[in-house]
Amino acid sequence: MATADTKLTAKKVKFVITRQDDPKSASYTEEFELDYRPGMNVISALMEIQRNPVNLKGENTSAVCWESNCLEEVCGACSMTINGKPRQACAALIDNLEQPIRVEPMRTFPVVRDLVIDRSRMFNALKRVKAWIPIDGTYDLGPGPRMAEKKRQWAYELSKCMTCGVCLEACPNVNEKTDFIGPAAISQVRLFNAHPTGEMNAEERLEALMEEGGIEGCGNSQNCVRACPKGIPLTTSIAEMNKATTKHMFKRWLGV
Fold first, then answer.
1. In terms of DSSP bridges, do strands 101-104 and 79-82 run parallel, antiparallel, or are they unpaired?
2. What are phi and psi of 98, to 5 degrees?
3. What structural domains does the chain harbor?
4. pLDDT for residue 144 is more than 90
5. What does the alpha-carbon distance between residue 4 and residue 11 come to, in Å, rounded to a whole number?
């Protein structure tokens, strides 16, 4: 008679992984089957495949390539599409996923290999809007200015962005035919313009949003806010930056 332990060991998990050998080659799918373990997530399954790269046909194959770092939904590195939804692989628990589990790279970004993508588009967008606080020198500048508590609370929510790229993957306006900077960069403009030091460069950031590929590229699909793993109020940020850029445009016309 089979015990509970042997039944648990016999349980299998099937994966269908979209692979690509290099940026120019065609993609293909490869199937893998693993022994189930309680508490498994997609990353631990990929680690198991890496340890023993044998596909469902019993053929030896190359280990699947992916990116990960913190394994606690903070770094954003393990973004991929799982069962049709862009998300973090470290937070995707096997028990909550329908099988076979289909894993693909996010297609908004160029594929480097397998599940590894090039997120330069997103990082270049952050450079474009100067998503940082400029500090002049490395000497001690003393304590920084304090933010009002009410402002600090909503700004903290925006600061949770981990540049995972999921919002860009979910946005229908971010694709190879457009140069739309995407919701993440727009939200970061709101964050840094709210900072007592960052607001010194507020007009530069607003000017960047008013350029081609800026905020006017948003189609208000609201996919971004639904997909964001951190629950960042991206559509609120976009609305606020719409108002800010409109005010800035009128001030520029009036020479104020």
1. antiparallel
2. -75, 140
3. 11-117 (3.10.20.30), 120-134+142-254 (1.10.1060.10)
4. no
5. 11
- Cα 192 from Cα 179, distance rounded (Å): 22
Helix, strand, or coil here: 95? helix
> What are the phi and psi torsion angles at 79 (to 5°)?
-65, 135
Name the more confident of 135 and 16. 16
Collapse the DSSP code of 242 into the 3-class scheme (helix H, G, I; strand E, B; otherwise coil) and give the result: helix
Q: Tell me the C-alpha distance between 45 and 211, whole Å.
A: 43
Give 2's pLDDT tier (boundaries 50, 70, 90).
Answer: very low
Paired tokens of 9:
């060991």
Mean pLDDT of 81-102: 97
Name 15's Cβ contacts closer than 8 Å, sequence gap at least 6: 31, 32, 33, 34, 45, 49, 100, 101, 102, 103
Mark 81-112 as b/e (b = at least 16 C-beta within 10 Å).
bbbeebbbbbbbebeebeebbbbbbbebbebb
Which contacts (CB < 8 Å, 24+ apart) does range 149-152 have? 151/194
The per-residue pLDDT for range 96-128, each reduced to its tens digit, is 999 999 999 999 999 999 999 999 999 999 999
